[in-house]
UniProtKB/TrEMBL annotation:
InterPro entries, per the entry: ArsR-like_HTH, HTH_MarR-typ, MarR/SlyA-like, WH-like_DNA-bd_sf, WH_DNA-bd_sf
Keyword DNA-binding appears in the UniProt entry: yes
Tagged with keyword DNA-binding: yes
Signal peptide span: none
CDD domains: HTH_ARSR
Classification via Pfam families: MarR_2
GO process terms (BP): response to stress
Protein's organism: Actinacidiphila paucisporea
SUPFAM superfamilies the record matches: Winged helix' DNA-binding domain
Domain HTH marR-type as annotated: residue spans: 6-140
Name of the protein in question: DNA-binding transcriptional regulator, MarR family
Keywords linked to the UniProt accession: DNA-binding
Molecular function terms from GO: DNA binding; DNA-binding transcription factor activity
Amino acid sequence: MKNSDAMSLTAALLSATGSLVQDIHTGVVAHGYDDLRPTHGFVFTRLAPDGATVTDIAAHLGFTRQAASQIVDELERKGYVERRPHPDDARARLILLTDRGWRCARVAEAAAAEAVRPWVEMVGEQRLLALRDELVELAPAGPIRPSW
């Protein structure tokens, strides 16, 4: 692949990613969750379905433990998460989504479906699912992180 082709592929993937993040966030805000930032959605993806520790969240986001703790504090103040004793580690606290957090997560899931609807209309569901499968093969296993 020529350098110019690699660069245009990179630009297209990053543009699509940025667009999806913004469209999902816009959908979440439109449903009344206007006290969140896009970064919070990346935290939610780590918390669902079974919760996580602050250390897990920090690793997931590529943040320091202190920065992750500040985000968790903020989400707790806003009623999206709660801290509970960790069932396997007496020194750790398990961060879990509250009912409000789960409602927001469901809204984000619906917003994601709405965000890709134009893509389905443009290229068809089968091609889009094939692209998804190929990207799953290409993408490194691991956390979904903000790209900024």
